[in-house]
Amino acid sequence: MGLNGKLVASLEVKCGGHLFHDLYQTSCHHVSNISPEKIHHFNIHEGDDIKAGSVIGWKFNHNGKVNVTKQLIEAIDDEKKSITWKVIEGDTLEQYSAFTITASFENNWATWTFVYEKKTEDTPEPISLLGFLLDVTKDIEAHLHKEIKAF
User: Fold this and answer.
1) Which residues contact 12 (CB under 8 A, 6 or more apart)?
2) Considering the entire predicted model, what is its pTM?
3) What are the angstrom distances between the C-alpha of 113 and each of 5, 30, 81, 119, 144?
4) S-S: 104 plus which of 9, 41, 82, 149, CB 3.0-4.6 Å?
5) How far apart are CA 130 and CA 6, in angstroms?
6) Cβ atoms of residues 81 and 105 within 8 Å
């Protein structure tokens, strides 16, 4: 059994991926307003805004437990509508030695990719965390769809 893994999940989003990319690139702090039961807080630890090299933090409810994470924004690709975060602190690193998240919002698809290294062979695959992000994606889609209909 290997300790390295990769999980990928895609979800069709009817309101267009560019709106998701814009939200995550410029207005992450709104995600806690859109999905308050899941996301409690967002902040920027290092850097003036959301760009490659900035360090951000999230406080969220996953599996009935409040979790925190601190992430380095490794890359933002406006052409591919993708953002890559490397987890550098927090609850995720209790089970994983390395954990990188990439979100791609091309066309009408939201795709989440996890690349990770488990600390032990007994560590579970992060499937529930991936499901959590898909649920947040659905909350954001419902919110954006409502805003589009309002215009």
Assistant:
1) 108, 109, 110
2) 0.93
3) 10, 22, 14, 19, 22
4) 82
5) 11
6) yes
Contact by Cβ (8 Å): 73, 54: yes
| Domains of the chain by residue range | 4-150
Count CB atoms within 10 A of the CB of residue 6.
10
Tokens of 96: 């994983």
11-53 per-position pLDDT tens digit: 999 888 889 999 998 888 899 999 999 999 999 999 888 899 9
Other C-beta atoms closer than 10 Å to the C-beta of 73 total 21
92: exposed, middle or buried (Cβ count in 10 Å: 0-12, 13-18, 19+): buried
What pLDDT does 150 receive? 56
DSSP 49: S
